[in-house]
Amino acid sequence: MKRYFVLTALMCAMAPAMAAEYPAKPIRLISGYATGGSVDLAARVFAKHLGEEMNQTVVVENRSGASGLIAASGTAKSAPDGYTLYFAVGATFTVMPTINRDAEVKSLEELAPIGGIVDYTNILLVNDTVPVSNLEELITYSKTNPEAVTYGSSGIGSSSHLSGEYFRQLTGAPMTHVPYRGAAPAMMDVIGGQISMFFDVTATAQAHVKGGKVKPLAVTSKHRNAMFPDVPSVAELGYPDYEVTSWFGLFAPKAIPASVSETLSKALIAVRNNADFQKQMKLSGYEMFTGGAEDVTARIEKEKNLWESVLSAAQR
């Protein structure tokens, strides 16, 4: 009996030390998009800095498909031990439940947010032959020529689609949606003049603007973007309710221990406060999303309600 109590006491004494060992092995960071894309590149920068903060290797694993749902499902099914995390794109949580009824959507309910990472915004680009030089001229031109204006998107439910549809609804400007399978072919057709405009992410838009084939008219965030300081926002041009931004966040399986979640949260905050990380993100057009788990949850609910309304109106 004495030996039993001694062993029990030793195990209790060891428990805090065992918990403190996290992370004791490399961590997988699952990304739902292909290698080489903007999401993947951001995930790899984040993984490097997270690994440095946690003194452990963080390996990015790409599981592309279904707008991030395949990666989300895979993460949700993994052991809730903090060694498999999800680098999430906001639209997976805020848009996909509205337009996708596949089984993978249910997996989103099995994930818990650790916190936000960065915000990003879109910018409205028009082909240089479209006879407009600002947003009001575009709206007037569209209303005068209701069959003339087309806007491309990287697919139904994508940020570029939602930016265009919300813009059409708020301004009353007639324009036809042309969905593509990805942002690159849509952007190429704007440059080539096959479609009138495209809401591109600021991170990739800069090169196209410098090429001289497209004109930037407005950004979709409430305020101006650091990459395009001379380009006004849609909101400041007379449409104060208009705002389309997205974000990246860190998620884990829901049953993750509180102590592990707290360790990850502290590491995430440290990454966001890292000057080098901030500089790298700013150069790509991103801004810090400083919210914690509760802020991410609130944002998901707010944006989900907005996009349900916008997409419902689009179907009528």
From TrEMBL:
Keywords associated with the record: Signal
Gene3D superfamilies, per the entry: Bordetella uptake gene, domain 1, Periplasmic binding protein-like II
Lineage: superkingdom: Bacteria
Keyword Protease assigned: no
Signal peptide: 1-19
Entry-linked PANTHER family: BLR1237 PROTEIN (PTHR42928:SF5), TRICARBOXYLATE-BINDING PROTEIN (PTHR42928)
Similarity comment text for this entry: Belongs to the UPF0065 (bug) family.
Protein name as annotated: ABC transporter substrate-binding protein
Taxon lineage: Bacteria, Pseudomonadati, Pseudomonadota, Betaproteobacteria, Burkholderiales
